[in-house]
């Protein structure tokens, strides 16, 4: 089964063709980064309008690179949530229209299910159950992915305030760094030792696995504000290194704790923040210490892409699932 996947949940216009076995035949992403960078964040109206411009040619290019015509496509999948309402509606409406016009089955896909499926693109399925950490600009969640057709997902923990990627963006802005904040912080953090500044570790008083980064972000703000009030120059790289280390320690601690609590057979890392090489390398090293299989997609499939949506959709379509033509976009859709 060849499935055309469409992803427009935020600011990336993406299309891909993927088989039900996870083979990626093509994956195209039209980035809007330069459009939003001057504003220091995503402007929903700009994102929606650009999706409208980019989606037809992005989908056509994905099919061309896959060597496919519409007669070679057996289904269409599109993200239906969570995400920005206007952005979701563009991709969802286009995918429905394309499927309807060609009498193809259509399936709406949860963006988070897509991220968890990304770890199985172009490779064999992971051993189950496995713990999946989804870390991105909009999400910081731990899921237990159990065996089944389709897979069963149990939410183990999520953020109580800022998502980890959002925290990176806000701290980068405090330090006067460029947008997006994650790559900017990673870039300068490598120039300093991370132990010169001690930031508090985000921990829940109830001992839960929940994430929270507002306190850590506030600690950075206090440090920066006090230094500026005293007329002292801030070593942005030093602050970035300490902040990044605090975040990574928290993500690793809770991920490994979840693995132990649920007797998981593997650990997977995905989402845009999974592109951070320090997080990838450190989590892989910690998993290796306890002989835990660790999986993380190539960077191109960590950030928002349509290959992950196509795979999640292909699996459901192959089981006979179909979405109604009036399936709505749901900005706060849960998995």
Description of the molecule:
This protein is an alpha/beta fold. It folds into two domains: 136 residues, Nucleotidyltransferase, domain 5 (2-Layer Sandwich); 167 residues, ATPase, nucleotide binding domain (Nucleotidyltransferase, domain 5, 2-Layer Sandwich). It is 41% helix and 18% strand. The chain contains ten helices and ten strands. The strands form two sheets. It has a five-stranded mixed β-sheet, sandwiched between helices. A five-stranded mixed β-sheet has the order 8-7-6-9-10, sandwiched between helices. Helix 4 packs across helix 10 and helix 5 packs antiparallel against helix 8. The protein is globular. The protein starts with a strand and ends in a 17-residue tail after the last helix. The mean pLDDT is 95.
Q: Could you state the order of secondary-structure elements as H and E?
A: EEEHHEHEHEEEHHHHEHEH
What is the CATH topology classification name of the largest domain? Nucleotidyltransferase, domain 5
CATH homologous superfamily of the largest domain? ATPase, nucleotide binding domain
How many domains comprise the coordinates? 2
The largest beta-sheet arranges its strands as 3-2-1-4-5
Question: What's the tally of helices?
Answer: 10
Largest sheet: 5 strands, mixed
Global mean pLDDT: 95
Q: What is the architecture of the largest domain at the second tier of CATH?
A: 2-Layer Sandwich
- Radius of gyration, in Å, reads 20 Å
Distance between the termini: 25 Å
- Helical amount: 40-55%
Strand content: 15-25%
Shape: globular
Low-confidence stretches: none
Supply the helix-strand structural class: alpha/beta
